[in-house]
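Quick one - inputs below.
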Amino acid sequence: MDIKTVCAGLLTFGEASGYEIKKLFEDGTFNGVYDASFGSIYPALTRLAEEGHVVCREQEQHGRPDKKVYSLTPKGRAHFVAELSRGIQPDRVRSEFAIATIFAHLLPRDVIVAYVDQQIAEYRAALVRLDEAECDPSSEMTNLQFAIGLGRAQLNAALAFMESRRALLEAAAVPPQQETAVEARAVPGVKHA
Amino acid sequence: MDIKTVCAGLLTFGEASGYEIKKLFEDGTFNGVYDASFGSIYPALTRLAEEGHVVCREQEQHGRPDKKVYSLTPKGRAHFVAELSRGIQPDRVRSEFAIATIFAHLLPRDVIVAYVDQQIAEYRAALVRLDEAECDPSSEMTNLQFAIGLGRAQLNAALAFMESRRALLEAAAVPPQQETAVEARAVPGVKHA
DNA sequence: TCGATATATGTCGGGCCGATATATGACGGT
DNA sequence: ACCGTCATATATCGGCCCGACATATATCGA
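Output:
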């Protein structure tokens, strides 16, 4: 599923500009589910307009730059539903924090401690954003509450695990006084299965 | 963190070929944490060799094509530790399943049911792979067990939520007899905050 | 013998990210 | 009054990475 399709999906909830779509990815409906940069969103909207899947309307604003508001056409809506019905790819995760934990035995302890604190802060922030999204009046739909509940269940489980086991991870890291010694030590060529 | 750095990290556990690194992404150490295609791995190993971070050794095999086995140099190891200590980016998730649930009210019920079944099957398969990784003799390190435990906690939470609430989601989808009627219906232009 | 599967490496087009440029106006500090 | 910072808003561009394809060897079952 490409960015064009995802943008079209967001527009089923109502018209929006490229900037507003970016904000929805960051703290709105798609928080923690999907993500796209301006460098993807603006070209995607241009191509959607060329294909007749959206129409563009320029809107003047007072005290702010003008914006281009895009609306989904019936053709675009039908195409989105067809694309989403065609099948979905498995979840794709990219966790640099998980990589850091796997190599914790190579990192100074204070670095690992900082990473754990940072990760816990991000989990908490994501939970707050989900709470806000649930209070949103547009979330009366049971299916949006399902998506929010699934995210919250995973975040709470991750938080509970991290807070109860972080000492084990930090103990595996390199203690401050051994830091230089370890970096100079020869590497045992351990084979992995 | 680019693919080069992640490949270098895997090589701290011992020498490996590009093909073996791909398998480690799929069902080994990095299962559910990171992912890379052959189109990224092979050029990454070539560039790592050019930079002197790995050395390459060609190995003949009986009953199989030859392979190129890469080993991390001390320079490459030091560079990897420095890169990983420089800071980490927040987790990035791309869940087409979550998108499908958000738009469940636009999809036929049988499509949603199939997607839920598929997602549950993927969660279970990921749990099995984590169990195998934990039994692996190389996972005596407490930090690798931490990463596995974190993944398992999130997967179990997601599974429990899906199995107890899937009926709510499926009820929000389009019932079979109303399918054509809904697609022809006019779209109310609902604004999102 | 034919196709399927597994092992193994590589290229290439195109999609997407991150950085950068540009512009307007609000707000607070000196 | 002036300046920097922040938020709003759009757009481009280099480069990284994915997915598809090409290529090759060998085993196994139909």
